[in-house]
Amino acid sequence: MDDVSRSQLWQPLDPSRREIRLLILQPDKDRHAFPIGRLITVSLEQQLHYDAISHAWGGPSEVYYININKIKVPITSNVLDVLQHLRDPHQEKAFWIDSLCINQYDTKERAEQVKLMEHIFHRAVQVQAWLGCESAGVERLIDDINNDKALQKLFRGRDWDRRRQNEVSSLKDFVSIRYWSRVWILQELALARSVVFVFGKKSFAMKRLEKLDGALRQARQESWGRDLVDAISILLPIISAANLFPMATTGSREEKARRAVKMLSRARRLGCSDARDRIYGMIGIMTAMFGPDFIDAGYECSLREVYTRFAGRLISETGSLAILNQAEVIFSSIEGLPTWVPDWASRSVHDGANYRMEYCDWFHAAGEFSVEPKALAPTCMSSLSRSSVLKCMGFIFGMVRVTGAYCGSYRWPNSKRELRPMIESWRQTYSGSVESFMRTITLSLSARASDLEECYKAGESGSTETERRIRRPCMDATSERRFFVTNNNAPGLGPRDTRPGDFLAVLAGGRVPYVLRRSSKPDALPNTYALVGECFVDGVMYGELFKGTRPPEFSDIYIE
């Protein structure tokens, strides 16, 4: 399209009136006919009746032209399929679809419209999530998803017969649909009042997707097939999205901060063409959580600026350091990114951090100490210099004396056999009490010496009871962790890059301790550190350091 056509098609919007565009599609009984429609400008302050379309960008490179406002507009084959399938055969119908209702060539307009996503999707009568079309296997699975009796029989039984082989093949096709891998879908689904997933002529509701997830989890207890495990991990962020909006409007700001971090962490597997959208793609939810002025979508900002501004804003607004639990500098690919800021675009595997998110909520290493959120303010944020530093309140309580072997991600189906040799090697590193060792490798879920032998047995037999009580928490605790022993002879688990001589700190606003490393900059103050990552140290996790006659004193700690 030339500039003249663009200006005619996308008339300027008035942000003060919260204006958006809607696509009015003409009816057509011929599904293969090219769509014809018009764009109209409306205000979100009006009474509106439209469906919002959630779909995947990219895909096949074929370009087609359709008639919108009597202008030939280029669209992808995926958008063509969407419009042909979702238009009404008998009457005009109004839709909101980002690829046509937003002038994607205007970065300022994109930023303004992104801020309205909460209202665009929440005001829609229905969100139609377009999955694609033309796959017999996927259509069979959708029929089963919509049938309770069929769903109960899916993936059940240990015999690898042709029926089960077809079921797993259909499941693999289903979870391979490109839509599930798009980061923007989380807020689009979360903000919707009603969602329907559409695949060609088939459709199903979010509740049916939740039932599929339940069937997969039940079947997984009988056979730990890799395909089922992969499917559950792919669908987890989607299922979680259903509860995001109600949770966004309830709870304390600290609780909301933890939820926001969990959402971003689970979205690491999802894709986007612009890495800044890992934050901007969640603005609708963040606005519901923290208010309309929490963060702006500035596409003129660098990736480093976007991630740093967001992390600093979340910390200073909530007083929570939960976002630090996702930061490990060795995984950062962004030049100049502060060590306390997670690299959400990192392509490294972060499964271990995801597993431990729920456990971290149990702990309160900083005891009852609290600090005003604004006191946890990153310095240099106005200019975002290369030395953006986070000012914290905390204290150093120990050092890493010795480290053990690093445990990577467990590889199915060998995970049971991998557990025992790792535990045995760590036990040789730490000669203290078995109870303390067990608390460390299970994140405090077990302190019984007899459970150590049960851990070994679980690696060999995998009984259901032991699996549920011991082995699963043990694998969650140890995945992608390095074992260490402190100068006070306490066992711990920390990030991969944990080294002897690193410092251990408790920080106000953090529920867990942190591994810090003295700044290597020659002009750095003595209390300036780099963040290595969060950790577990036995005897610290529940505020034990504050129970003596002389509790530690908090002072300024700077993290660069």
Automatic annotation (TrEMBL):
Pfam families, alphabetized: HET, Het-6_barrel
Domain Heterokaryon incompatibility per the UniProt entry, residue ranges: 50-188
InterPro entries, A to Z: HET, HetReg/Transcr_Mod
Xref: PANTHER family: ANKYRIN REPEAT DOMAIN-CONTAINING PROTEIN 39 HOMOLOG-RELATED (PTHR24148), HET DOMAIN PROTEIN (AFU_ORTHOLOGUE AFUA_8G01020) (PTHR24148:SF73)
Protein name: Heterokaryon incompatibility domain-containing protein
Natural source organism: Fonsecaea multimorphosa CBS 102226
